[in-house]
What does this fold into?
Amino acid sequence: MDTTQVQEEILNTVKKGQETVVEAIKSWVETVQSVTPKVPTVQVPFADKLQAVQVQFADRLPKPEDVVASAYDFAEKLLASQRKFAEDVLKATAALQPGQDAKPSEDAKASNGSSTSKPKSPAAK
It folds into this structure.
């Protein structure tokens, strides 16, 4: 079994586990709603002013969906950055890997900002 198949199996297992948890949470919510008594409304002095203040502050808070989306957007950017870093490290160290010549690859030079168009001195030939 190759790594791609193993990865797919792991992802499928995680997905099934997540689906099971979501279904269990839905079932739990339905159960809690069915057994929770309805609380009567109680009139509290200054309740209307308190509610106005709560609404004012609640409007400033992000929605849970926005928090989740923002966190995952950030995680995607961070993961992409880490991937590029790892790939750059591999390119920079390619000459040290078995079977490679001692000179850094042209890609590694280019990614370091070194110019590959410099004329070589006659002694370097």
